[in-house]
Amino acid sequence: MTQQLLIPFGNADWAAVAPLTIVALSALVVILADLTLPRALRRPAGIGIGIAGLAVAGIVAFGGWGHPYSAFGGGFVRGGFAIVFEEIVVVAAIFSLLLGYTLGRDDQAGGAIALMLWSASGAMLMAGASNLMTIFLGLELLSLALYCLCAVEPRAGGREAALKYLILSSTASAFLLFGLALLFGATGSVALSALAGPNISSALFDAGCGLFLVGLCFKLSLVPFHVWTPDVYEGAPLPVTAFMSVVTKAGTLAVLARFAFAIAPLPEAQALLTPLWIVAAISMIVGNVAALAQTDIKRLLAYSGIAQLGYIVAALAGTSAQGLRYAIFYLGAYMFMNLGAFAVVGLLSRPGVEGSDLRSFAGLGYRRPLLAAAMTFFLLSLAGLPPTAGFTGKLLILAIDVGSGYVWLAALLVIGTAISAYAYFKIVRTMYARTTGAQIQRPLAPASALPWIGVAVCAIATLILGLYPLAPSDVLPLVK
Amino acid sequence: MIWALVLVPLVAGLLLYALPRSAEMTAKWLGVAISFAAFAVAAFGHAAPDETVRWLQRPFVANFHVGWSGPGYWIVLLLTLTTGCALMVARLPRTRDFVAQMLVLLGAMTGVFVARDLLLFALFWDLMLIPVFIVLVAWSPAKSSATAWKYLIYNLSGGLALLLATAAFGILTGSTDVFGGGAPPGALSNAASFWIFAGFAIAFAIKTPVWPFHTWAPDTYADLPAPMAAVVGAVQSKAGLYGFLVIGAGLLRGPMQQAATLAVVLGLISLLYGGFAALADDDPKRVVAYSSLSHLGLIVLAIFSFDPIAYGGALVYIVAHGLFSAGLFMTIGEVELREDTRLISRLGGLAARNPRLAGGLTIVSLAALGLPGLCGFAGEILILTGLYHAGLTWAALIALVPVVLAAAYMLRLFQGMMHGPEVDDLPEREDMSPLEILALAPLVIAIVLLGVDPGPVTVQVSTFAEGFHLQASAPPNEAARTNLVVGRTP
To answer: Does B3 map to a domain?
Structure first.
């Protein structure tokens, strides 16, 4: 009996989780540094250690390239498309940390950075999670840290955002957990691979799938499970918003993709998944329509993110390997253009005041032409205009949807994009319009020049992903 | 070399922002130099081979493939010439930024007309919206930017329809690099090719514009500063016609023929509506916009007649309309700079004070109303002959009405601004400077040359048309007949 309780895992299993372990451990180092270093050094040290840890994790994760391995008895997958999601989480977390100069007071910075790293390691766990237990473990690790991060600044909307996020997200987790329990009941196994087994179809199974998908849609903030998103994005500090907008989505999307592909062989898979595509279609339209009226960039990007996630999920319709590649491609593109826009907002911020109000963009085209040009470029990409990654990504999704017979999704995507143009070009107009002279604020020194790195890298990546002669299929390994 | 025509203006436009804000003259002459250099390179580089760089392999093949087509060549010449001329006389605040946007527009539009891959075409098609939007927002006289929104939403909707159609074309045929020996379009089913054509047609009809998609155009032309109005009015509107000619007639003949009756009717409505609206408007820029609607409606008729003579006429008229509408926008801009207004009702008797300006406006408006010997006539007569030849006699007869209307509204515009009693409270300013004459001269020379001998342009289109088997059903002596009409010996 005691023999069986010994841990039966070898080095390969531990190597599989090495990247996320490194990220989690570097969070501990950040906290130690925070305890020992003088106050002025704590924040730079925290950001430095965090970025270094993430970078090392990224390199280690890349080592799994071409060596797929199912670790912990099928609980966690190393290699395959998990790597791409891990890298996306790592890069997004690094960009968020570059904005970290505006995060909380100096004595809170260490803790906040550590929480962000733990949250990132949760997302990385989700990226490779291949049984119901690890999925939930990753999701909770990701979310619990975020609840605290939302409230890290004593701002008016901060507590409200945190509380709203906590309550709604916990409800969604409960749905998801109940769904997992039902799925376990129906299949007798926690492994995702058991979902498509023979003779498991039952009302229990269908209900489990439904509840599970509801939970995931909430985390992806797809309509109608999106109402928390704008308030939480607006209330949370800028780096946290930037982090949430990509990292949570990447982790959840990995789970969604794995789940969708796991049940795809079932005869009733179409019936089970069609609501998901409909939800994606509604998100494209509702997200973009709601974005039209926003005057706060964070809220605008929240609604825009709802629509963008709709596009990404639409790429999965038809559950083809090619579609997954394009979903991942678009997620990568979304990461760069979205975080680039957040970095621009970061450069317009100073301690205590975030530059997310639309008015802080007035006349930017004349005050800071380079920054305005970069913001225009990111907005073009979000709107799907050339020569950007957003254009190519959208084209690929349109092509795969038409190719797999989901022409209605492609048509709705086009309509949603047309609507979204007003929301994004409203910012372009504010930056370049001549008549807003009275509202122009004095040029402010940004809290830090660090976000410039984010702006530059994101702009170059957005351009290259859009034009470089590299088919996504050349780089992205197949689904397994 | 062809890529340089696209990339040099684009990159130079962005780099202009690195100049100090006060270097307005440097920026302006740099812009002029780049435009005319592009003109020279294009004019002498006619035989340049296609250039291809790999882009996508999956889900379909797409390449960065540029090269010359018959219509594309002439429109790029028109584009570079009008951009250079318009920039020479650009006088407006923040010149550096304006020149930068003009150069970006030049690069993007050159890309549209040299792209030989559908996806690349769609890329440049969307790209050329952006500088116009920014200029409308930053230099528009109105506060609300309503014009900018109208322009953007109309044209972007078209652009997205185009993108969807391109994606569908690519995924269904396996390649969008169709002009370089890619997949034959025959691989499409009838229904698919119909819907794909519908997507393209929406984009082209909005851009041209064709009634009822035209409402953005008069506002846009009226609000754009004169130099950019000249380029957008002269060349950007041609992108739609170019699309019908090259993509529609070249790739999707079947559905295009199905839609011919509808298109001919819409073209006729545009012709008449534009003509009558131009008679009534007080703003000469809007008059030119409505006259464009009318003139370009005639070209739509020509394209949907599938007649080789009309095709020759269509290309001649595309270039001709570009030349005289650019000239009109520029001279109207000169008047506005001098008198601080451009409304016909507020102006009068300018000819006595500014005879050289009146002379310039005379030539371009005569070309616009189709005086024989100038370029407008050459295009009109070829198109009308072609329509008759194609059996569309009724359409040709209706199309004669706006030709008469053109004389009425152009003379009304000229008379209202230049003749009649002098208006006393208008500021008295210098006549055209030598520089302004120099800027208008290339357009006037081209107007006369094309009017006297449109042959080179029609020959271009007939070789181009043969390339797409346009004449498959026509009698074998068709090319000879085309030459007969334009007065050339074969």
So the answer is: no
Mean pLDDT, rounded, for B102-113: 95
Quote the CA–CA distance of B116 and B52 in Å, as a whole number: 9
Indicate the number of domains in chain B.
1
Nearest residue in B to A464, CA atom: B55
Alpha carbon of B124: minimum distance to chain A alpha carbons (Å): 7
pLDDT tops 60 at residue B487: no
B138 occurs within a structural domain: no
pLDDT value at A60 more than 80:
yes
- Tell whether B223 lies on the interface with A, counting CB pairs under 8 A: no
Hey, are the CB atoms on B134 and A428 less than 8 Å from each other? yes
Minimum Cα–Cα distance from A389: chain B residue: B123
Most trustworthy range by pLDDT among A280-284, B221-225, B408-412 = A280-284
For residue B390, tell me if it sits in a domain: yes
Of A422, A469, A471, the CB nearest to B53: A469
Instruction: Say whether pLDDT at A2 is over 60.
Output: no
pLDDT at B443: 93
CB contact under 8 Å between B172 and A403, yes or no, is yes
User: What ipTM was predicted for this assembly?
Assistant: 0.89
pLDDT tens-digit series, residues B20-52: 888 888 999 999 999 999 999 999 988 888 888
Q: Between A and B, how many residue pairs show a Cβ–Cβ distance under 8 A?
A: 110
Q: List chain A residues with CB under 8 Å of B95.
A: none
Which of chain B's residues have a Cβ under 8 Å away from the Cβ of A435?
Answer: 143
What is the domain partition of chain A in residue ranges?
A: 268-480
Q: Give the gap in angstroms from C-alpha A129 to the nearest C-alpha of chain B.
A: 29
How far B15 CA lies from chain A's nearest CA (Å)?
11
User: Which member of B57, B64, B145 has the closest CB to residue A429?
Assistant: B145
Is 50 exceeded by the pLDDT of residue B467? no
Note which residues in 74-113 of chain B have CB less than 8 A from chain A: 94, 97
How many CA atoms, within 13 angstroms, populate the side-chain half-sphere of residue A300? Answer: 24
Residue-wise pLDDT for B201-259, tens only, equals 999 999 999 988 999 999 999 889 999 999 999 999 899 999 998 888 878 888 888 89
Q: What is the mean pLDDT of residues B398-405?
A: 88
Evaluate whether residue B22 is within a structural domain.
no
CB contact under 8 A, B149 and A422: yes
Q: Does B146 touch chain A (CB under 8 A)?
A: no
Of the pLDDT bands very low, low, confident and very high (cuts 50, 70, 90), residue A477 is low
Q: DSSP assignment of B143-182, as one string?
A: SS-HHHHHHHHHHHHHHHHHHHHHHHHHHHHSBS-GGGS-
- Mean pLDDT, to the nearest integer, of A138-149? 92
Q: Among partner residues B14, B160, B172, which is closest to A418 by beta-carbon distance? A: B160
Nearest CB to B157; choose among A370, A380, A418: A418
In the predicted model, is pLDDT for residue A425 greater than 70? yes
The residue among A455, A425, A431, A426 whose CA lies nearest residue A364 is: A431
- Residue B312 domain boundaries: 259-490
For B360-375, the pLDDT digits (tens) are 899 999 999 888 888 8
